Amino acid sequence: MSVGSAERVNMAFIAAIVAVATIGGFMFGYDSGVINGTQKGLESAFDLGKLGIGINVGAILVGSSIGAFVAGRLSDRIGRRGVMLLAAVLFLGSALLAGAASSSAIFIIARIIGGLGVGAASVISPVYISEVTPAAVRGRLSSIQQVMIISGLTGAFVANFALARYAGGSTADFWLGYPAWRWMFWLQAIPAAIYFLALLMIPESPRYLVARGQDDRALAVLTRLLGPTEARRKVSEIRASLAADHHRPRLSDLVDKTTGKLRPIVWTGIGLAVFQQFVGINVVFYYGATLWEAVGFSEDYALQTNILSGVLSIGACLATIALVDRVGRKPLLLVGSAGMAVSLAVVSYAFSTALTDASGAVSLPGSNGVIALIAANAYVIFFNLSWGPIMWVMLGEMFPNQIRGSGLAVSGFAQWIANAAISVSFPSLAISPGLAVTYSGYAFFAAISFFFVRALVHETRGRELEDMEG
Question: Where would I find the Major facilitator superfamily (MFS) profile domain in this sequence (predicted)?
């Protein structure tokens, strides 16, 4: 499928449905980032200690890991769009319940519900985008998912900052006598409702329809996307790619029938998913405000720093969109791994110089505060230039048609389990052994990821989904 013919036929329609699908990425980002500015409110409302904060923050990750695993398989049964509609409902319910929570237990339930939506959107949106876009621009259009994730994070940071500034603090009363931190969750209901309504206007994935034996519906969708001649050819290609297996996709397809072991491509997907989290990026996204306050920043300045990181992240993702279909996926991953390893090592050094005064206040001496801030933002840029968007691009396209849903289920589950391990452990690790050692660990995993990519990741740029091998 050449991009030229796709553009002549209906590239505008392709762009429109990609835009709708990536609202799921925005919700993913917003639901993940909103917790960043609410932790003081949670601590005071529910009388939480450090462990309690970690559990409340990490609750979303329990739901996300389940949602990612279930969504991959469920999308082979009810469709990619069906799963995204379900995710939108979960986002809406979670936003309303989290803001109204009267106890830590209810809040945790609300965040698990939201996590189910996050996990589902995180794996299905990239798959859907990959399955409706031409190979020549698939990387660019799939990378928009990460732009929307970061836009959602930044949107949450901006909303948190504005509400806290206007109310006089995240725990101060705001509209209708409710504290600002509750409104930080309730505002999420607006984009969740928009997501649901927009999904009603886009078609189902044609590759899913062929897999379900609905060739006529798939042909109708592809005709709108590509025109009648290309549509008929593409339906034949998809059908041929599925012909070797005379059954509908199932989880056992991930096992190589010859060796009885997981296919190598599945291990590569799991590795990409796990390393994306073991470099520690969600410590910045989930605990950014708390992190900067811990080294002497005011709450107001810490929230502004979050916004800066979000803006830089979006800029880096836009650079990825320009590069991913030109230089490829693997080179960007290698550059990102090297850049993150160096910048994380500098952050670790800066935090190792932290001083504590007689009152217990922590600060970074001399110019080390500025060094830490610059290095941390360089790390965020390298991540969003590479592992942030490219991991999702590759998981959405690297698996053969027969195992795409199942491969995403297993890889997505691994990604969210790794996310939970890093995010829930951080509050305790920040105290002992401390920020310097913790960030050294993230730098180590960034360095290891470089060699993982060199050895096991194969380039997918420009290849049709029907040509993927595993």
Answer: 17-461
Averaged pLDDT for residues 367-380: 84
Q: What amino acid is encoded at 32 in this protein?
A: S
The three-state (H, E, C) secondary structure of the chain, written as one string = CCHHHHHHHHHHHHHHHHHHHCHHHHHHHHHHHHHHHCHHHHHHHHCCCHHHHHHHHHHHHHHHHHHHHHHHHHHHHHCHHHHHHHHHHHHHHHHHHHHHCCCHHHHHHHHHHHHHHHHHHHHHHHHHHHHHCCHHHHHHHHHHHHHHHHHHHHHHHHHHHHHHHHHCCCCCECHHHCEHHHHHHHCCHHHHHHHHHHHCCCCCCHHHHHHCCCHHHHHHHHHHHHCHHHHHHHHHHHHHHHCCCCCCCCHHHHECCCCCCECHHHHHHHHHHHHHHHCCHHHHHHHHHHHHHHCCCCHHHHHHHHHHHHHHHHHHHHHHHHHHHHHCHHHHHHHHHHHHHHHHHHHHHHHHCCEECCCCCEECCCCHHHHHHHHHHHHHHHHHHCHHHHHHHHHHHCCCHHHHHHHHHHHHHHHHHHHHHHHHHHHHHHHHHHHHHHHHHHHHHHHHHHHHHHHHCCCCCCCCHHHCCC
Taking only the tens place, the pLDDT of each residue in 388-418 is 889 988 887 888 877 887 888 888 889 888 9
Record the pTM.
0.75
pLDDT at 6: 40
Query: ω before 433 within 30° of 0 (cis)?
Result: yes
Task: Give the Å distances, CA to CA, from 205 to 95, 129, 140.
Answer: 28, 9, 19
Check whether 380 has a pLDDT greater than 60: yes
- Residue 267 CA to its chain's centroid (Å): 20
**Looking at the predicted structure, is the pLDDT value of residue 291 above 70?**
no
Least confidently predicted of 19-28, 98-107, 204-213, 232-241? 232-241
Phi and psi at 49, nearest 5°, equal: -95, -170
For 7-31, write each residue's pLDDT tens digit: 455 778 888 888 898 898 898 888 8
How far is it, in rounded angstroms, from Cα 430 to Cα 288? 12
